[in-house]
Write a structure and sequence with these properties.
This protein is mainly alpha-helical. It has one domain. It is about 40% helix and about 5% strand. The protein has a two-stranded antiparallel ribbon with strand order 1-2. It is extended and about 50 Å long.
């Protein structure tokens, strides 16, 4: 992440693989119950966002606002899918949380 790529560890030559235009997104719960703490060395690459449980409607507004901004330069057929993306994300979150 720091150097725009990494070495291919499977090959004997260890060739450099350059990675460009990648957005890393991750999620986790608090440490405990089999979840390890995340090192500062890794966390420094991310913006840490925490929140208390909030209403689904509020989450929808936040996610749609973020996606509208992030995808603003995309074609209209992609923008038309924002509602579906947010709904699918909410559904996965609810299924995983159960």
């Amino acid at each position: 992440m720091d150097h725009s790529g990494w070495y291919e560890r499977k090959s004997k030559e260890k060739t450099w693989v350059k990675v460009e235009d990648i957005v890393f997104v991750s999620a986790m719960g608090p440490p405990g119950g089999g979840r390890s703490t995340i090192t500062m060395r890794l966390k420094r690459h991310f913006n840490i966002i925490t929140y208390t449980n909030i209403a689904k409607d509020s989450i929808d507004v936040m996610f749609k606002t973020i996606l509208n901004h992030f995808l603003s330069n995309f074609e209209s057929n992609i923008l038309d899918e924002i509602n579906h993306i947010v709904e699918a994300t909410q559904n996965v979150y609810e299924l995983v949380g159960d």
